[in-house]
Amino acid sequence: MKNNHYQLDKVVILSRHGIRTPLQNTLQFLEKVTPFKWPKWDHPYGYLTTRGGILEVYFGRYLSTWLEKHNIKLSKHNTELFVYSNSLQRTVATAQFMTAGAFAGYDIPIHHKYAIEKMDPIFDPSLQDDSTEFKNAVLRDIEEADKAANIFKSLAPAYETLSDILDYKHSKLYAEYKCDLADIPSELYFKKHEEPALLGPLAIGISAVDAFLLQYYSAFPKEQIAWGRLTSQEQWQQISAIRNQYINLVCHSKTLAKHSAALIINMINDLMLRDSKVNLLVGHDSTIASLLGALDFKDYQLPNQFEITPIGGKVALQRFRHLSTGEYFFKAEYIYQSFEQLHNGLALDDNNLPQHYQLHLENASVNNDGYYYWSDFEERIKSIKTS
């Protein structure tokens, strides 16, 4: 790519919050799936941890140098920067730490709609429509995805590994169902004003895998990470597939993705028309997955990461101007820390750069330098926001 022919003109960075503690309802649920005791955390449930904050400071510092390399250096007046987060502690705190790292000493407002711990509709995956017609469309998406990739059957070895780690056969849940983890009945939970969920093995799996990932990213002692029973990269890769498939089916599939992402896509469209060159939005893995699904990005696997929506990861939607023609182009990158970088918790610098992975669009053409045409991406945004 001849990057010297292009100037980054505007960027919207959609970030997942940083490392948090487990959610209270998740931990209460997980007590039934294993005879082992889950470790205690030194922060309230669902809050960004101190370590999570430090890593966001590092990431913010990196982003400021990345922007400077693209010839975007923000002024003290901050009119070129806009920061907006969901109104939960972990998202607001992530935005605060990230901007502190990027622009230490500057008075940068963190915009959020409500008092802390109330969900902003822009980031809320809860259902606004629970009609039979809509539910059937979602079920068709799940059925088609399973038919195409044989998802539920292919996860059988992962469920077996997870069952062994949890010692599920000696749990209260096993006493209740009296069957293997993979054979617990699945059901789509679909209720207006609540988050959709695939109850059964996938819901149990994503809850347990999340808890283990948070322990690993928080650098718990080895004997405390999954009680010392999760010891190989192969195990991590296998059980992370459960988490990824849950995200794909519940957040990324077309019908639910368009439903969940409409408001944030509307906001991104508005931000592209404003003066702010750099726009930072902080939400959740569901926010990123639904956005990428709704805008029809190609499926991807991030190098050096088992998660498809890693904690603290950022999707950078970039608009470039061609210096000689004045024409606008589009590029999207996932900027994230690898599995080991999150665990090691070191500062991001030239010796420890975050990962960059270019995301690609389905049914879209690129120019000779590998950039998408901005007009095509703009049309795609508008087709979602107005539908």
Unreliable runs: none
Major β-sheet, in short?
Answer: 7 strands, mixed
Give the quaternary arrangement of the chains: single chain
How far apart lie the N and C ends? 35 Å
H and E order? EHHEHHHHHEEHHHEHEEHEEH
- Helix proportion: 40-55%
- From the alpha carbons, calculate the radius of gyration and give it in angstroms: 21 Å
Q: List how many beta strands DSSP finds.
A: 9
Coarse shape: globular
Give the mean pLDDT.
94
Structural class: alpha+beta
**Count the helices. How many?**
13
Strand content: 5-15%
List the defining traits of the structure above.
alpha+beta, two-stranded antiparallel sheet, 14% strand, 387 residues, 13 helices, seven-stranded mixed β-sheet, 42% helix
